[in-house]
Design brief:
It contains 17 helices and 16 strands. By secondary structure, the protein is α/β, with parallel strands linked by helices. It binds iron/sulfur cluster (SF4).
Length: 451
Amino acid sequence: MRSNSFDKRITPGGENYLKVILELSSKGKVCSRDIAEILGVTKASVSGMTQKLKDEGYISKEKYGTVALTTKGIEEATEIQERYNILNSFFTRVLGVDKSTAAKDACFIEHIISSASIKKIDEQLKKFDYIKNQGGNMIIYGPIPSRRLGQSIGINNIPPKTCSYSCVYCQLGRTNKMQIKRQDFYQPEEIYKEIEVKIKQLETKNKKVDYLSFVPDGEPTLDINIGRTIKLLKNFNIKIAVITNASLLWMDEVKEDLMEADWISVSIDSVEENIWRKIDRPHKKLKYDDIINGIIEFSKIFKGTLVTETMMVKAMNDSDVCIEKIAEKIALIKPEKSYILVPTRPPAETCIERASLENLKRAVAIIRGVSGIDVECITGDEEDDGFFFTENIAEDILSIASVHPIREDIVDKILKKRDSHKNILLPLIDSNALVEYEYEGKKFYRRNLQK
Ligand code: SF4
């Protein structure tokens, strides 16, 4: 946390203006009329305040009465939004305050809380997420079925939760170890041995695996050994997939490490720096231009299948303008396919919502039209079972729930398929090993990783 009203004396009113301008700029040009409408003030008030913000270097006034945030303004507005997110998440997730009260309180307190207090609250939130994730760090998990990769054994080559981003939609919660320095986590031989055991187990059941997939509790390329691990795993003659946020692809050694993978997915949530900062909340040393250029350069030399994925978040990156800009970059990357995803599980920030179906349809059409690339939208609603199981059904469900929250209807389907009943889960729920969540009106189960 950098500053607040106390520290810098920007007024709460000024902070609200910056927040609204940031919000509106994700949809295109920002004009006084829109600001006045959202804040419920007159155009004269907007004129007075925008002049003040301009004099203080937060915004610039552009042609036809529009305004834009300066770099200083983007930083300040992102900071205010961040304070709001921390408070809102703390109230709802840690304290259990209802959503609407939490939103109102966060909106009020964000202007008056000191930097020292918000820093402490953020630390508590991260501890809360860390405790939730701790203990569940299986290096190998699955196989898990997915639409894109069929049956894949997941490789968790990063301890939870170490990442170069702290995406607002991350289903793992906030990033507690933000870094861009690559390091040694696990030895390639250790991962190899675990996969060998898993494959042998599956062979006894005549089960086939389509992919070995690096989908860890963080950013997989932070693992300095990933290149060596991929080379070693090639001995299994199973295709290798890596799902990366691509934030380190500007580094030659990261490009080199990924060259032998068969299928790589890179994230492109926005190509506008302010929106990228808002959604992905990157490490402060990352520069967006380096990342997008790194992806484009990599796409020219990578021989495997490259796909992009864009998480569509309501009112953040789902405007036509934002999508068109993403599509222009996708046209340069020329991936095999461009995937559009939506947050389907409880996200890091409770205020995050998925883009509407109408906006998703438009996004598909825009990306396809501008880039000429095949686009597929995965909403998670089509998720099906197909997990491989042992004889212990409850343990199987617990194992899946420790990797990611699992929706109630999927649990029901699994139980039905195996002639079982939800009663078998009661001891796990009673002992708090399996926790029930609600998200977008649907129930989810997640393993309590403190148990
Ligand atoms: S890049 Fe992935 S792991 Fe990292 S914060 Fe974003 S969604 Fe979570």
